[in-house]
């Protein structure tokens, strides 16, 4: 498992209060984790803080799965 995946999973588990072991790259924030708009805001905020990146509103709308955020981070970190 990549370090980025582990770090992303930690943010998700903290924000969504889910078991870290249930999170996979295919996990969908809305469909699988039932993230509402506030959850999504806190997830993006957590990713920005954890990885020292800025995620625009337009980019945030395209981030639907764990793999999406991993791809985004790997291109920018």
Write up what this structure looks like:
It is found in: Cytoplasm. The protein has helices at 3-16, 37-51, 57-62, 66-76. The chain is an all-alpha fold and 77 residues long. The chain is globular. It starts with a helix and ends with a helix. Helix 1 (3-16) packs antiparallel against helix 2 and helix 1 packs across helix 4. It has one domain (3-76): ACP-like (Non-ribosomal Peptide Synthetase Peptidyl Carrier Protein, Chain A), CATH 1.10.1200.
CATH topology: Non-ribosomal Peptide Synthetase Peptidyl Carrier Protein, Chain A
Order of helices and strands: HHHH
CATH architectural label: Orthogonal Bundle
The percentage of residues in β strands lies in: under 5%
**Superfamily (CATH H level) name:** ACP-like
Quickly give the structural class.
mainly alpha
Give the N-terminus to C-terminus distance in angstroms.
Answer: 17 Å
The biggest sheet amounts to: none
Helical fraction: 55-70%
Number of helices: 4
Shape: globular
CATH class: Mainly Alpha
Total number of strands:
0
Unreliable stretches: none
Give the number of domains.
1
Protein name: Acyl carrier protein
Pathway: Lipid metabolism; fatty acid biosynthesis
Organism: Candidatus Brevifilum fermentans
Family: Belongs to the acyl carrier protein (ACP) family.
